[in-house]
Structures are given as structure tokens and as C-alpha cells.
Amino acid sequence: MAALGLGSALAQTSASPGADSGAATQWGLGVGLDYQRRPYRDFDDRLRVLPLLMFENRYLSVLGTRADLKLPSQGLFSFSLRARYALDGYEADDSSFLAGMAERKDSLWLGGAATWRAGFGNLSAEVLGDASGHSQGAQFRLQLDRRMRAGAFGFTPRIAAHWMDRKYVDYYYGVQAAEARTGRAFHRGEDAVNLELGVRVDYALTPRQSMFLDLSATRLGNAIQDSPLVDRSGLAGVRVGYLYRF
Q: pTM value?
């Protein structure tokens, strides 16, 4: 979940108004600041500073922690093979409540994505599997967004549903028998659906320079809320960044 915000925000910020991203090679560099509450009890939430990379041509799109190999489009529909690196892991010293828990690692996810560019907005879907083998899980995300412009500003509200299978939830939110303690019972995860509302605001400083602000609120699925590791029902995220296109 943690990797989605900056990649999504960068995707809109990197788009030149009226330009065909497949017509010529574009690339850019920047920096992003990402602060998102983690759901774990007593977690040491930190502001992350992340380098931003954007590369786009007819065949390949790289946006932050996401890379797409483009497939042939069909009218208003576009398709791609997708790789995404997700920063979902934790270490036991990230929280006093997690002491004695085994490390949960970040993962590389592989799969596919499709987007329908309809008159009412963009409806996109992605299905991914854990290629790192840490959780051996799968996830599916469905998102509707619409970009609106006002001078140098762009506004993109979105709504999304994010399904994670039981293997994903059990790996990141479960408690194994050897990890159980007083006040932290053994727990097996089940599949869950998170619901997200968000908005991205981007501003073109110059034809080559842009900044963005991304705000999000996520309601955690019931199976995640049921975990003894979790002490909240929702998360908030704030991301800002700067991108220079060459």
C-alpha cells in the first residue's frame, strides 16, 4: 500500500497537457516526501524522502516505484504488464508492540493493468502477485479518477478499492504461533478490501518543472482491523514532490 501514493501522484504530474506520451521519449527526475500513518500499534511513523524517476516512451513507462511494459491499445482501452515495488514491510524495532515479531519484508509485485479512458474519467484496474515470494499473496486494485485543469493547476480526485488475499493479510497483519505473547494473540489473516478517497493537486512552475500535493484517506478492511497488531480503522497520507522533465 505504501508505494501507491507517490507513484500515482507522479503519474499525473508527469503528464504534459495535450501531449501524446507515446509520441516521444520523455524523462524526468525529482524528489518526494511521503508521510503515511501505518496501521500498527505504537508504530514509529517516519517522513520518507524518496527519489522520483519518470521515463516514458512508446513501449515503457517508469513512474516512481512502478514500471509498465505497454501492450497494444484498443480504442479507449490501454493495457500493460506491470512491476511495482511496495514498501509494506516492517521490522520489530519499528514499534514496541512489534517486539518479538519476525521481520516482514518489502516485496516486488508483478502482474498486469488496464485503463479505460471514458468521458466520465479514467477507470483503471491492476492485478498483481508477490514475485518476491515473501507473502506469496495477490492483490487487485480498482480506481476511478478524473483530472480537471484550472490554469497551471491540475486537480485529480479519485476513489479506489484495494483487495488483498488472505496470504497478503496473514503475512503483514497475522501473528504466528511463535510470535504470540500476552496481549498479542495468535492470529490468522483473511482477505480484506481497503477503500480509499484521495485528491492530487499539481502545479506547473514552468513547462519543464512541476510540483504536486497528494492527500488520501483509507478505510482499512475488517480483516485488517481484526488483527491484534492494528489499533485503528483508517489511515491518512500526505505526499508532496517536485519533478523536472528533461
A: 0.89
Residues in the chain: 246
Q: Domains of the chain, with CATH numbers?
A: 4-245 (2.40.160.40)
Angle at 113 between CA 158 and CA 188, to 5 degrees: 80
> Which residue, among 202, 210, 235, has the nearest Cα to 220 in the 3D structure?
235
Euclidean distance between CA atoms 223 and 7, whole angstroms: 26
Grouped pLDDT means (10 residues each) for the chain, 246 residues: 57 51 82 94 89 95 95 97 96 94 98 96 98 97 97 97 98 97 96 98 97 98 97 95 96
What is the DSSP code string of 100-128?
Answer: TPPPB--EEEEEEEEEEEETTEEEEEEEE
Query: 61 - beta bridge partners?
Result: 56, 68
* Joined grid coordinates for residue 55: 521515463
